[in-house]
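Readers of this paper often ask what the protein records in our data store actually look like. An entry from our holdings is shown next, in its original layout:
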Amino acid sequence: MRKGLTFLPALALAAWMALPAPVTAAPHANTVVATVNGEDITLGHMILARESLPAQYKQLPADVLYKAILDQLIQQTALKQELHGEVPHDIQLRLDNETRSLLANQVIETVMTNAVNEDSIRKAYDAAYSTGDGGDEFHAAHILVETVEEAEEVIADLKKGADFGNLAKSRSTGPSGPSGGDLGWFGLGRMVPEFETAVLAMEAGEFSAPVQTQFGWHVILLHERRKTAAPDIEEVRGQLEQQVQQAAIEAHVDQLTGRAEITRPTIEGFDPAILQDLSLVRK
């Protein structure tokens, strides 16, 4: 009896050992991790699902996150199959927009990658700093108030000889008010366009007419302006790369749209506010 009990397992073991060893391939994007009613979920689906998660969720232990993502994809697949292949019109439109955006971004990334090389960076640097200086810097102060009338009152006081710093401390609503409105030194691109335009037109020692920005009304005093030395190319490499990439994208888009056959039919009685009517895509 004992021999019989030991014989069968031994025979089974011998048969198993005679079978060819299973081929184990390295996991890849198309590796199937689950199947729901014949529809595959792949490792690639899971990788991209993880990539779209908020950063805090990505910090979860790998095994916990793996199970959670797979469970979610299984549940979503089962729910999706309830539609039996039918795609609601608004969902299809969203898919069209998402596909268009993803593919366009793929082209943009390729253009950006191909645009940046040492030669293009050097040309951008030479174009920006061919004069040997790094451009203008400004030392200014300002008084920020809520209305143009208040700004005009400030200017009237300045014309009567009032001290700019004291007026800033007493009247400015900006965070620099307690320090006399002083903004320190800044270069081009650091201030909002309206503020920068006003400063560019000023001479040292002058104060401006009322200047309106998104923050309110400003009266600006330009203390001093100076030229700065050209930076080393490595200091501005990141900025130059962005400039080269942006220029390449704009040129590529202009080229594509310039040679594309584009029609924009006139729709009689069209009101742009119709974009707010979601009922049109949910029919």
The first helix runs from residue 2 to 18.
